[in-house]
Structures are given as C-alpha cells and as structure tokens.
Amino acid sequence: MKLIIAIKNTLQTLLQPWLNAFNQAVELPLRRYDLDWLRVLAFGLLIFYHTGMLYSENWGFHFKSQYLSSNIENAMLLLSPWRMGLIWFISGVALRFIVARFSLGMFLITRSVKILLPLLVGIWFIVPIQLYAQMSQEAGLAMSFWQFYLQFFDLTNPLFNQYQAGIWPHVDVNHLWYLRSLWQFSLLLVLFIPLLHHPYMQALLTRLCERSIIIIFIVLLLPLCILKLSWPSDTFRYPMGALFLLYGYLLAWQPVFYSQLLRHWKRVLGAFIIGYLLVVAGYHIIWQNSASSQWQITSMDMLYTAQRLVGVLLMLALAQRFLNHDHPKLALLNCAVFPFYLLHQSVIIGLAFYLSELQLGGFVELLLILSLTFIICWLVFMGARRVDLLSPLLGIKVAGKYSTWQIKAGFCCGLILVSPLIFRLV
C-alpha cells in the first residue's frame, strides 16, 4: 500500500505542470469567424489543387490524366507554397482553444478518437481506390476494383510487393498523412505545454507582436529557413507542419499580432505578388534547369520558404479584413470540412480513372471532375450527418442529444477501435 501511495504521489508531482496547464481558469476569446472561413476555404482549395495535380506535367501524383500541361503548374504555384502551412496554422489555433476546454486525460482521449477513427476508416475504405488507379496505370493491373479490393485486405499478398510504404504493408495514408501527423504533433505539443504556457513565454510573445511587421516576419521565417537547410526535402513537410502548428498555437491569443496583419494587409499583398512572380520565374529558370548550381537551388529554396510564410500571413490578413463575420451557413460548411477532406482525393482520382476511358478532352474532363467531386462529397456528407453511427467515422460532430454516459461509452468504443492504429503510429 505504501508503495502504491508513493507511486501515486510521484506521478502526481511529475504531471502537475501539465495538469496545471490544462486546468488553468482562462477566459476564452470570442470565436474567430475569420479563421472559420479560412478553414473552409483552405480545405476547399485542396480540391482544386489535387485536381490540378492530375494534369501537371512535371509533378508526381498517384494518377495522371492523359491531358498533361506544364502551364497549369504556374497557377498551382500560387497555392503550393502556403496551402498546407495555413492549414497547420489554423490547426494550431484550434488546439489552443481545445486545450483550454479539456482536462489532460479528456484531451488525449478525444483527440485520439476524433482524429484516428476517421483516419482508420480512410485508410481501409476510402484510400484504396487511389492505389487501384495508380497500380492500373503504372503496372497494368488487369482486374476490377472489387477484385482488387478483396485482395487489399491480405497484408501478405504478393500483388502489392512493390507498394510497401504504408502504416500496414500496403495500407497507406496517401493524402490523409495530415491526420496522422496532426495526432502525433498533438501528443508532442502536450509535452511542451508547461513551457508554452509559462508567463515568460507569453510575455516574450507579446513583446514580439508589438514589434514591426518586418521584425515579426523575420523571427517567424528564420526557423523555417533553418529547417529547410537542414532537413531532407522529401520529408520537409513534416517539420514544416509542426512549426506552423506551433506558430498557430502560440499566436492564437495574441490580438496585437492580428491587428498588425490587418493594418499592413496591403503591404503583405504586395510582397505576396512580387514573391509569386519570382517563384514562377525561379521555377522555370532554376528548378526546371538541370544545369542549375547548388547556390541557385538553395536561393530558390529560401525564396519559396519565404513565400510560404508570406502566403500564410496574407491569408490571415485578408480574412481579418474581409471575412471576420458570421453567416447562417458557416457552421454547416465547417462541419463539412472533415468529410470533404477525407473523401476528396479518392473521389478525384476515382473519377479521373473512369473518365479517362471516355476521352472527353482536357477542359470537359477537368470541369466534370471538379463539379462531380463537390457534388459527391456533399451528398455523402449530408447523408452521413443524418446517421449518428456514421457521423464519427467521417469526423462529423454528433448532435448533443446523448447522455454523458452514452458519450463516454462511445469514446471508449472508439478508443478500442483505434488502439491498433495508435500502436502503429507511436
């Protein structure tokens, strides 16, 4: 008994900084409608971006249309630098609000179930069509999707010997890598919460936000540049995402930061336009030129990294200026973001795969894929939100009509379902 009490006291001492951080009595800021709109727009842009990937001549993707063009890459460079940085920043802001509302235990349980349950559904039931289309195009797969799907559940099937980069051998996350990383980064963030909430850190952030917009930009840019110079390019998206999530978390409740962006939004817009033109020029002159020297490539990497940050700051500034208001449909659109994210790339690739046989021409095919992707995702969302059992599987919040014990039982069942995935990801 004495040993148990000693262990309990030791654990309580070790966990006290985290418990204090989660149990702080804080007054939550008003809801950020500008960030709600940004979340909807940022994930909506993924549909246009990933549809464009079908047609980009020089960028790799799981499936390619027969109507390839290098010109579309110029338009995609408008979004490419900052699209995921913005999503990660918004995720960091959302985490700051969630941490303020939940205890440490509830935070870990709810985040695990709400993120990993849709991820589990996604990798087994949504993503496989992407692998089918990819293998059909690359390896000349000669079977129907349903024949392929039955074999997909056999983790030792030799059919997938060349496709072994998944969570389980060939069961990969594809576009759902964001959910996997979001869960992992949320756990890492918990470890640093006592430091992030320390009064000295908060005072330091306040002083930074009171500086000029140029100083703020430089301070935020330096860690990104250091990461870019020291991290392999093929995995850079992970530390980049973690850093933007950290920025969102730290700056979530810094009103001076957002007022600075609002005050200087025209200057940020000007910097973004100049940066975009330089990125496009550098893309064709340096990145597409095999004879480019290392210093030219490094200079281009730094420019692209700077444009990444400028793009995020611009979107935050424009949202402050033009989107800081509620709308009757905003809550519904926000609810649709998660299922749209889960479904969109598989719908895009599935449509492209089957429409390619019709040879409709690039413009008609593109128009059909875009319009049908929005329609199919919307219909699935509207159907799933009406079935309480399906809603959590697609990341849709269930209406609050259940008792506390029923909600806890639901989370326990969800935690049991995702436990194999947790062991694979930790």
Can you describe this structure?
This protein has helices spanning 2-22, 33-53, 72-76, 83-101, 104-126, 128-139, 145-152, 177-191, 193-196, 199-209, 213-230, 237-251, 255-263, 265-287, 294-322, 330-355, 362-384, 404-425. Helix 2 (33-53) runs antiparallel to helix 4 (83-101) and helix 2 (33-53) crosses helix 17. The protein is built from 18 helices and no strands. It has one domain (30-127, 173-425). The protein is globular, with a radius of gyration of 23 Å. The protein starts with a helix and ends with a helix. The model has no long low-confidence stretch (mean pLDDT 92). 71% of the residues lie in helices and 0% in strands. The chain is mostly helical and 426 residues long.
